[in-house]
Specification:
The chain is an alpha+beta fold. Helices cover about 50% and strands about 15% of the residues. It has 28 helices and 21 strands. The strands form 3 sheets. Strands 2-3-8-5-7-6 form a 6-stranded mixed β-barrel. A 6-stranded mixed beta barrel has the order 13-14-19-16-18-17. Strands 12-20-11-21 form a 4-stranded antiparallel β-sheet. A hairpin with a 5-residue loop joins β2 (about 170-185) and β3 (about 190-195). α5 crosses α15 and α6 crosses α15. It is elongated.
């Protein structure tokens, strides 16, 4: 009968809602009686006796719930009430089956936690908008050098010209990263800061939380007012959120700076993932920067540029306008700017520095997100198996409820409500695991002179992504038992006797889920194996030096106030005292150490060599003290090494590597030849060293020039390199004690062993290999546990069958073989499917791996062996239990 009011349900719908109430209370009564010790059949009879027939109970229920009946006239309320009953019932069921709940939540939370961890990293690096005003109109400006870097920095003089002549930007700002020894009343800490032009905050559209940004007069020339803006994090952690911080004095590199502002919360600069601790004007370069760039040279690029495009002008127009400016400057300054051009990119493409870095990060992020989604699927299949087993164990209960009038859809809703609650609980636990794991990700970062932390935040995107995963997980593992209920003939369950063998349908479904788990595990393990193999091949590359037992300790006098004379004397004394320390075989000082520190490119002039048109005369350069090649273990192929004879008052000399010798003196002996760097004083070549790796283990050989530290410009920052007799770790505290005695005002140096230092060269490859291996191992454990659970359950359902077979003459060994054979076949099917998937997916890794075939037979053979071994191990205990089945107990059950 149709209700007259369009918003009210029909009488049939009201009756159905009341039937649901009857069913719920009757079921609660049956459950209480079963828990009290009655059998299910007796509990049903007792419940019916208590409530009388259904019609009498319903009339009583109508009298008790007249208010409920009136509320049920609203369709929306009726649906909400039904959902609330389902959730309440599901919660009680989860509480009652604690073992199942704990196992399911633990398995699912591992998968959700892994996804939330990786997504939070990807979100912080690639997705979350930068905390600036209208980032879509901001662009990064790079200097490209023909035959050199496509995305290079810009010199100070070029920046001034670009800023004055540009017509496409409302503003063009400059900034440079600067390690700073920042302190207030306590010991200074080395932190990563930035020097910026006065209009930096204005151009990017950032308003400080406290105080102000910089004024034009604070950035005129050099040696201006020493003022600083602190980041919000620095203000909180190092200055305890002092609201009166503006106007107070802090010390940067032992120089007093006045705090004029505190940045807004969430703003850490224009580079995602790595934030600045403080900002100071470019004019404070001599105080705030622990090295000295050449501000009067157009060939010393040290600034990064950011500009805001004028309204109505696109990136392409801005790029074209700057190119015209670059061409004009190439005519005006042909010697320094003749081979330069400008590259303009959207800010979002350069959030990790340069576009190629962002693209590499996106490819790697795609791989990692795919991996953790596979882990989640394996976890979902595990929980689906548990749900199917649980639903099977409750089949008589479900059949009774169905026979009393509950629809299949009503019963399926109960099961889905349990799945929803499980997913939400697992999502909460997974978020807690992700918070812990995000801190663990910091451990994958290599140690460095300037501590760097990934700026990972859990914002609304991460929370929404986690809830979406929980919803998808509900669909994946919650539908299996619900579909079983909807499809199964419930009368069959009532006919089954207790302990009867299970039909093949559910066992087939469970084994299908195990096949999927094995297949996905193979994909993950093979991917992890390829990354580990790539990492191993990279580590095996010859770095060009054989130093393994030793330390590298940066010694930066730029963090204090020392004159050039004092600095050179301190460096000399540091080298002398370190050499005499116990356990030290030799020691040296170097401006740069290969594979971890950036060597700048420098123009050179070669006597008698005529460059080809547009040929770049650029080489990498290093400045070292005596004993450098002996300490590093670099072979001198020809001539002699730099030693104590090469002093400030002796002939200027230099050493070159094999590649440089072949390029400029292919048919002549380079010893005694003359060259100069940066159009400086002439130098005589005294030796040739073997080629090495300077920036990356995978780089191609390039020209390399080495000059004596005593004959170069004064360097405030050098590296102390020590070769030790044995283990280098005991030498570190002794060496650091020496540096503290010589320069007590400097912050603690970040001394590292050579293996720790070489982590730089492995970059993201090592972290990716570690993460993939961890996720692959997690997937293997989840799949093994799922396999064991399915086999144990299948064996328990066939206990009577095995007992009968033993009574009829079957040997226990044959029973053991039969169960193991079933597990072997399941594993075999899973590996066949997994190999097909892996062959398709690992090809996507070819561009990331080094010297590894994406179809490496060694990796696949090892993975297959691991899967079959763990599969048989997971089957062995259930098979052993099956072989011990008791025939007497089997016949008694009949």
């Amino acid at each position: 009968m149709r209700s007259i009011h369009p918003n009210r349900p029909t009488e049939d719908e009201v009756s159905a809602a009341l039937d649901a109430e009857i069913e719920f209370h009757l079921e609660e009564c049956v459950r209480e009686l079963v828990e009290a010790g009655l059998s299910p059949e007796k509990a049903e009879r007792e419940a019916k006796q208590r409530f009388g027939d259904a019609r009498r109970y319903r009339r009583g229920l109508e009298r008790m719930h007249r208010g409920t009946v009136s509320r049920l006239n609203n369709r929306g309320w009726a649906l909400a009430h039904g959902a609330w009953l389902d959730l309440r019932y599901g919660l009680r069921s989860l509480v009652q089956h604690k073992t199942f709940t704990i196992a399911a939540v633990l398995s699912l939370s591992l998968g959700i936690g892994a996804n939330a961890t990786i997504f939070s990293l990807v979100n912080s690096l690639l997705i979350r908008p930068l905390a600036v005003h209208d980032p879509g109109t901001l662009v990064s400006v790079f200097t490209s050098v023909t035959g050199g870097q496509d995305y290079g920095n810009t010199s100070y003089l070029d920046y001034l010209d670009y800023k004055e002549r540009n017509e496409a930007f409302t503003g063009l700002a400059a900034y440079a990263f600067a390690p700073m020894a920042l302190g207030g009343t306590e010991q200074a800490r080395v932190m990563l800061g930035q020097l910026v032009s006065w209009d930096y905050f204005e151009v990017i559209g950032v308003t400080p939380r406290l105080g102000r940004g910089f004024l034009p007069e604070e950035d005129e020339g050099f040696g201006g007012p020493t003022v600083v803006v602190l980041s919000h994090t620095t203000w909180q952690e190092q200055f305890s959120s002092d609201e009166d911080i503006v106007g107070s004095t802090v010390r940067i590199n032992d120089h007093p700076f006045t705090v004029v502002g505190v940045g807004p919360e969430g703003f850490t600069g224009l580079n995602a993932g790595v934030g600045a601790a403080a900002w100071a004007p470019l004019s404070t370069l001599e105080q705030a920067l622990p090295y000295t760039p050449n501000t009067e040279s157009r060939v010393d690029p040290w600034l990064q540029l950011v500009g805001r495009v004028k309204p109505g002008i696109g990136v392409g127009e801005a790029r074209a306008g700057l190119q015209v400016t670059a061409q004009v400057m190439a005519v005006e300054y042909p010697e320094s700017n003749g081979n330069k051009s400008l590259v303009v990119e959207e800010l979002d493409r350069t959030r990790l520095g340069i576009p190629s870095a962002s693209e590499d990060a996106r490819r790697l992020s795609t791989v990692l997100m795919g991996v953790v989604l596979l882990v989640l699927m394996i976890a979902c299949f595990n929980v689906a198996n548990l749900q199917v087993a649980k639903a099977t164990a409750r089949r008589r209960e479900i059949a009774i409820r169905h026979s009393l009038g509950a629809s299949r859809w009503r019963i399926a809703r109960h099961l889905l409500a349990e799945s929803v609650l499980l997913s939400l609980l697992a999502a909460a636990v997974g978020l807690l695991l992700a918070l812990w794991a995000s801190d663990a990700l910091q451990l994958l970062l290599p140690r460095s002179e300037v501590p760097v932390e990934l700026n990972i935040a859990f914002d609304g995107r991460v929370l929404g992504f986690t809830l979406l995963l929980a919803l998808l997980a509900t669909v994946v593992f919650g539908l299996a038992p619900a579909l079983q209920v909807l499809r199964r003939n419930q009368l069959d369950s009532l006919k089954d006797s207790v302990g009867a063998s299970q039909g093949s349908g559910k066992i087939g479904l469970q084994h299908s889920l195990v096949v999927a788990q094995v297949a996905l595990s193979l994909v993950l393990l093979s991917s992890a194996g390829l990354f580990v193999s790539s990492l191993s091949n990279t580590i095996a590359l010859d770095p060009g030096f054989e130093l393994r037992n030793g330390i590298v300790a940066p010694f930066n006098l730029g963090y204090g106030q020392y004159t050039e004379e004092e600095g050179r004397e301190l460096q000399r004394r540091l080298l002398e005292q370190t050499t005499t320390l116990p356990g030290v075989r030799s020691a040296t000082l170097a401006a740069f150490v290969p594979l971890g520190q950036i060597h700048g490119h420098h123009d050179i002039w070669i006597e008698g060599y005529e460059p080809a048109p547009d040929e770049l005369m650029l080489v990498k350069r290093n400045m070292v003290s005596a004993g450098y090649f002996e300490t590093m273990g670099i072979t001198v192929l020809q001539g002699r090494a730099i030693d104590d004879r090469d002093r400030e008052d002796t002939e200027r000399v230099a050493m070159i590597n094999e590649t440089m010798a072949r390029r400029y003196w292919p048919d002549r002996d380079p010893i005694g030849r003359t060259l100069s760097a940066d159009l400086g004083v002439p130098r005589s070549v005294i030796g040739v060293i073997e080629d090495g790796k300077y920036a990356s283990l995978r780089e191609s050989p390039e020209s390399y020039l080495v000059i004596p530290l005593s004959q170069s410009e004064y360097l405030e920052r050098v590296n102390l390199v020590v070769r030790t007799v044995g283990d280098a770790r005991p030498v570190i505290p002794v060496a650091l004690s020496t540096t503290r005695q010589l320069a007590p005002g400097l912050p603690q140096s970040a001394a590292m062993t050579i293996p720790e230092y070489l982590d730089y060269s492995l970059g993201a490859l090592k972290g990716s290999a570690v993460l993939l291996s961890a996720f692959g191992l997690l997937a293997l454990v989840l799949a093994t546990v799922g396999f064991y659970g399915v086999m144990s359950y299948a064996v328990s359902r066939r206990t009577r069958e095995f007992g009968v077979r033993i009574a009829l003459g079957a040997t226990r060994r044959s029973i053991l073989r039969a169960v193991l054979r079933r597990g072997f076949v399941t594993t075999l099917i899973g590996t066949v499917v997994g190999v097909a998937l892996a062959l398709a997916t690992t090809r996507l890794l070819a561009g990331i791996l080094y010297d590894v075939n994406a179809l490496d037979p060694t990796v696949f053979s090892l993975v297959l062996a691991i899967l079959f071994a763990t599969g048989q191990l997971a089957c062995y205990l259930p098979a052993r239990a099956a072989s011990k089945a008791d025939p007497v107990a089997a016949f008694r059950s009949e």
